[in-house]
Design a protein that fits this description.
alpha/beta; 7-stranded mixed sheet; 25% strand; globular
């Protein structure tokens, strides 16, 4: 039997980006805070097997591709170019370790208790933490407030169960020990394209199979069209409108069976990466027993202050509605902590940016042109290509463009869609403008340093007004 519960102002269930940020903000606000995390490290999927390690491999593979294909254009010749995959994977693990240790330091600095074990929410806002073997000890915490931050897990296909050796989720795709001859990717979304790009750059043949008519569902049509053209040119074999009907392991690899226009085909490769989406993870949260309101996918329903229907219980991140993005979870964690502390915080998602870390990068915020058109709102579009930007030319990175969609009458920015070099960094300017309900003219008349890639943003904003200068 567990001992009497330990009292805490806030108990956070989950130590991922949403959970650990919520815990830190709560502690900053003077609240006695406990964060429950069952993994050996803090940081959740993002830091351990998601955002951070995938970007480390994307960076390494990007350097390799540059040296092998583009360095000669700069007058740089490299002989005997090779790959040490083990070193590349070790560097990735070292980067992850630096981040997880950094979070542990922040917990100590802010006097946050890390309750190591699997958390279960009981009635009355008691959280039981099972420490696991060998002791199997259970510690209970009585939270005045509880924040559920249990994240998400990858979706499996019934005939392609993850074994992380041949049938891979994002976890296994980060630890392939050698460059595969052929990697099959099921799903043409962000995760599939990013991880597929890693191994394609290193020399693998990569086939991407997408059920829908286009890759990157939900992105602006112009960006999708440009991205697909570029990715095909880079060597990705993209099969859209194609259904996977079967699959599994072979003696030395894996296979899938696909169907398109009534024709069936068998594809064989070293590995199959299944990246068809993620679903809310609510381990330790028995919604029915607790009377917790959830949606049809099991997502925990919340209001704009992250409150659930249960008294003093909040939920944030991937286990709630909205885009499954680490930065969205972090901001929701801050909101939940501040609401608990009595501050007038609230959440909105219309200026949450999204990024695809392929090369060129893709970064978006707000509404696509299609959504604006369907809303019946009159609008104007402004586009400017990186091929007309001086800094992009000096870098030899002229692929892509920036596209603004703005209200035809007020000029308020409704959405911005970028594909090009380092646009993951350039989107922040637009997000800030949209937070203040800024106009395209606001950005267009702002002085941007020359020569910089950010001038492309300025010119695209001016293009909405019909007065772009350099095109």
């Amino acid at each position: 039997m567990p001992d009497s519960p330990i009292s805490a102002d806030v108990v956070v269930i989950g130590g991922g980006p949403g959970g650990y940020v919520a815990a830190i903000r709560a502690a900053q606000l003077g609240l006695n805070t406990v964060c429950v995390e069952m993994d050996k490290t803090l940081g959740g999927t993002c830091v351990n097997v998601g955002c951070i390690p995938s970007k480390a491999l994307l960076e390494s593979s990007h350097h390799f591709e540059f040296m092998g294909h583009d360095a000669s254009k700069h007058g740089i010749s490299l002989a005997d170019l090779g790959i040490d995959v083990a070193t590349m994977l070790k560097r990735k693990d070292d980067v992850v370790g630096q981040n997880t240790k950094g979070i542990e330091f922040l917990f100590r600095k802010n006097k946050i208790t890390w309750a190591k074990g699997r958390g279960t929410l009981k009635t009355g806002n008691v959280v039981e933490v099972a420490g696991g073997p060998p002791d199997n000890n259970v510690t209970s915490y009585q939270g005045k407030h509880v924040i559920i931050a249990t994240g998400s897990v990858p979706i499996e296909l019934p005939f392609l169960k993850f074994d992380e050796e041949r049938i891979l989720s994002n976890v296994g795709a980060l630890t392939i020990p050698k460059v595969p001859q052929h990697l099959i990717v099921v799903g043409g979304g962000i995760i599939g394209l990013e991880l597929g790009s890693v191994w394609r750059r290193l020399g693998a043949k990569v086939t991407v199979v997408e059920l829908l008519p286009n890759i990157l569902p939900g992105f602006d049509d112009d960006v999708v069209k440009e991205a697909e053209k570029v990715f095909r040119k880079q060597g990705l074999d993209i099969r859209t409108g194609t259904k996977v009907v079967n699959g599994g392991r072979t003696d030395g690899g894996a296979f899938i069976e696909v169907e398109k226009d009534g024709q069936k085909e068998r594809l064989e490769g070293d590995h199959v990466l299944v990246s068809v989406g993620r679903k809310p993870a609510t381990s330790g949260i028995d919604a029915q027993a607790l009377g917790l309101n959830v949606g049809r996918r099991g997502e925990i329903l919340v209001d704009d202050q992250q409150r659930t229907n249960l008294p003093n219980v909040y939920a944030i991140g991937d286990c709630t509605p909205g885009p499954m993005l680490a930065h969205k979870a972090e901001e929701e964690g801050v909101v939940a902590a501040e609401v608990i502390a009595g501050k007038p915080a609230h959440t909105h998602h219309h200026t949450v940016p999204g990024v695809v870390y392929t090369w060129p990068e893709i970064a978006v915020v707000g509404m696509t042109e299609k959504l604006v058109k369907e809303s019946g709102r009159e609008y104007k579009v402004g586009k400017f290509p990186f091929s007309a930007n001086g800094r992009a030319r000096t870098a030899g990175e002229t692929t892509g463009f920036i596209k603004f969609v703005s209200d035809a009458h007020t000029d308020e920015i409704l959405g911005v869609h970028m594909i090009g070099p380092t646009v993951s960094e350039m989107i922040a300017e637009v997000v800030l403008a949209m937070e203040y309900r800024g106009s395209s003219e606001d950005i267009g008349i702002t002085v941007h340093a020359h020569p910089t890639l950010s001038e492309t943003t300025k010119e695209a904003a001016l293009a909405v007004l019909g007065r772009a200068i350099h095109i």
